[in-house]
C-alpha cells in the first residue's frame, strides 16, 4: 500500500518533472513541503478536485515552459504555487489584488528581516 501523499504525487506528476524519490515527493526547502501540504489539505476539504488541480498545475507548467521556464523541474514548486494562486482566484477565494498585495508584503518583510532570522509578515514595515 502506498502512502497517501505518494499516491497523490503520482497522480499529479503524470508527465511532469516532480522532484521525487522512491518514497514520493522530495522538497529542497521547507516552503515546498508547506505548499504541497496546503494543496493536499485544500483538495481533501473539497475546495477543488484532483482533476481541477491537475488542470491548473498542467496549465501553469505548460505556460512556464512556453515562456522559457526550467525544463529540468527545478522550478516545479514555483509552478505549484502559481497554479494554486490561479485556482484560488478562479474559485473566488482570493483576488489577484490580494495575492499581489500579500506577495509584496512578503517581499518587504524579507528585505526588513535580518539575515538568518525567520521571515515573518510582522516584519513588513508597511504593516
TrEMBL record:
Stretches of the chain forming a coiled coil according to its record: none
Alphabetized Pfam families for the sequence: NHase_beta_N
InterPro entries for this protein: CN_hydtase_beta-like_N, CN_hydtase_beta_C, Elect_transpt_acc-like_dom_sf, Nitrile_Hydratase_acc_put
Domain Nitrile hydratase beta subunit-like N-terminal: 17-111
Domain of life: Bacteria
NCBIfam families: nitrile_acc
Name listed for the protein in its UniProt record: Nitrile hydratase accessory protein
Species this protein is from: Bosea lupini
Organism lineage: Bacteria, Pseudomonadati, Pseudomonadota, Alphaproteobacteria, Hyphomicrobiales
